[in-house]
Design a protein that fits this description.
The protein is α+β, with helices and mostly antiparallel strands. It contains 14 helices and nine strands. Strands 1-2-3-4 form a four-stranded antiparallel β-sheet, with helices on one face. Strands 5-6-9 form a three-stranded antiparallel β-sheet. A two-stranded antiparallel sheet has the order 7-8. β5 and β6 form a beta hairpin. α11 crosses α14. The longest helix has 26 residues. It is elongated and about 90 Å long.
Length: about 375
C-alpha cells in the first residue's frame, strides 16, 4: 500500500487501484482508478491540488470586504436584471452604501451593523430601497458561505415613508376635462393612461399604428396593442419590450375617450415624436420618441398657462383604476387589462384575457361615466 502526506493508495488487482483522501472539511473519500501505480498517484495529486485551491479560495472569501464582494459576486449577476434596476442599484451603492460598508468584512456584518448602515441614509424612501438591496446581497453572502444567516430582517427599521398625495380627477368631470385639455401637448398619451389604464412608460413608447378603430354593437372603441415601453435609464431613453408576458396585451378604450384618441392617432409614428426624423421602412428607436421629461414639463407648463388643475401623468393609471372600482367592474378583469401578473389576482392565473373581456372593461367605465 502506497502512502503519502495526503491520502494513500491501495493495490486491488492488476491495473486497478483505490485512492483514499480526506477533504477540507474532514470527510473521507475514495475512488477506484484503472491503471498503473503512477496513474493512481497522479490522480491523487490532482485531487490534492484542487483541495488546496479550494482552501485558498475559502480563506480569501473569509477575509473579503463588502467592496470586493460587490465587484466579484454581486455585479456579475446584473446581466439578468433590467437596465433601470442595474442603474438604480449601482447608483445606490456608489452614493450611499460604498462609503459606509465598503471596508467592512462580510463575515462581520451583524443586524446592528446593517441598522447603522441604514441609519446613515437621510431619505426614508432611499432607506427602504437600501434595505431591499442589502437583503439581496446578504442572502447572496449566505449562499457563498460568508454569513450563517441574513442580518436583514423585519426587525431592521427604516424611517416612516411620507407618501405623496396623488392628484385626482372625478369621473363626473371626465368629458369636460377631455374637451378642455385636448389641445394640450401629448393628449393621446394622457387618453391612453386615463382612458385605458396604460402605464406612463407604455404610453410614452406607443405608436399610432398600434391604436386601431374597433366597432361592436354600434359602439366605437380604440383598441390599443401594448407591446413596448419607454423608460429613462441614467438620463437616457430606453425603448424595450414590456416588463413581462402579462404586460403584452390589447386594451380597449371606450367612450368618452375612444373617438378623441382615434382622431389623434391618425397616421404613423410615436404618439409624441421627438425632432429626430424617421427613415421610412426603418424600425423606430428610442431617439424617435420625445423624452418623458419633456412630455411631463410641457403638460405641466400648459396647465399653468391655461389655469387648468395639473394632473400628473403618473397618477392617471391610478385614476382609471379608481374609476373602475367606483363603477363596480370585476377586479380580475381590471387587473388583466392593467397587465398585472400578481399572484393575488385571478386574472393572470384563471382568465385568458381576450378582446371580448377588454370590451366589457371599457363598457363598464363608459356606462358609469354616462350615468353621472
Amino acid at each position: 500500500m502506497s502512502r503519502s502526506t495526503f491520502g494513500h493508495i491501495r493495490h486491488e488487482a492488476e491495473d486497478r487501484h483505490r485512492i483514499y483522501w480526506t477533504d477540507n472539511e474532514g470527510n473521507p473519500h475514495s475512488r477506484r482508478i484503472r491503471g498503473t501505480d503512477k496513474d493512481a498517484e497522479l490522480e491523487l495529486a490532482k485531487i490534492k491540488v484542487e483541495l488546496l485551491i479550494q482552501q485558498d479560495t475559502e480563506n480569501e472569501l473569509e477575509d473579503m470586504k463588502w467592496s470586493v464582494f460587490w465587484d466579484t459576486i454581486v455585479v456579475p449577476t446584473f446581466s439578468k436584471l433590467q437596465a433601470h434596476t442595474v442603474y438604480d442599484y449601482k447608483r445606490l451603492w456608489r452614493t450611499e452604501l460604498k462609503s459606509v460598508m465598503g471596508d467592512i468584512m462580510v463575515g462581520d456584518t451583524t443586524p446592528k451593523v446593517i441598522q447603522r448602515i441604514i441609519d446613515s441614509i437621510d431619505a426614508p424612501s432611499v432607506q427602504s430601497y437600501a434595505k431591499r438591496l442589502l437583503r439581496k446581497i446578504c442572502n447572496m453572502a449566505v449562499v457563498e458561505g460568508l454569513l450563517d444567516v441574513c442580518p436583514v430582517s423585519r426587525n431592521t427599521k427604516t424611517a416612516p415613508l411620507t407618501r405623496r398625495k396623488k392628484t385626482g380627477l372625478l369621473a363626473s368631470n371626465a368629458s369636460q376635462w377631455i374637451e378642455r385639455t385636448l389641445e394640450a401637448p401629448a393628449a393621446a398619451i394622457r387618453l391612453c393612461c386615463v382612458g385605458g389604464g396604460l402605464s406612463p412608460e407604455e404610453a410614452w413608447g406607443m405608436l399610432k399604428e398600434r391604436v386601431v378603430r374597433y366597432e361592436r354593437n354600434g359602439k366605437i372603441y380604440a383598441l390599443v396593442e401594448v407591446c413596448a415601453a419607454l423608460t429613462m435609464v441614467g438620463g437616457k431613453k430606453d425603448l424595450k419590450d414590456t416588463k413581462n408576458g402579462y404586460r403584452r396585451r390589447f386594451v380597449a378604450v371606450g367612450a368618452p375617450f375612444a373617438e378623441p384618441l382615434l382622431a389623434l392617432c391618425e397616421g404613423t409614428g410615436p404618439l409624441y415624436p421627438s425632432r429626430i426624423k424617421h427613415a421610412e421602412g426603418e424600425p423606430y428607436t428610442a431617439d424617435h420618441f420625445a423624452s418623458p421629461t419633456t412630455i411631463t414639463n410641457n403638460w405641466r407648463k400648459w396647465c399653468e398657462r391655461n389655469e387648468v388643475p395639473y394632473v400628473r401623468i403618473g397618477d392617471m393609471r391610478t385614476i382609471w383604476s379608481t374609476w373602475h372600482m367606483e363603477a363596480g367592474t370585476q377586479d380580475s378583469a381590471v387587473q388583466g387589462a392593467m397587465g398585472h401578473s400578481d399572484g393575488t389576482t385571478r386574472a393572470s392565473n384563471y382568465i385568458e384575457f381576450s378582446i371580448e373581456a377588454a370590451l366589457r372593461v371599457a363598457d363598464s367605465l363608459a356606462s358609469f361615466i354616462a350615468s353621472l
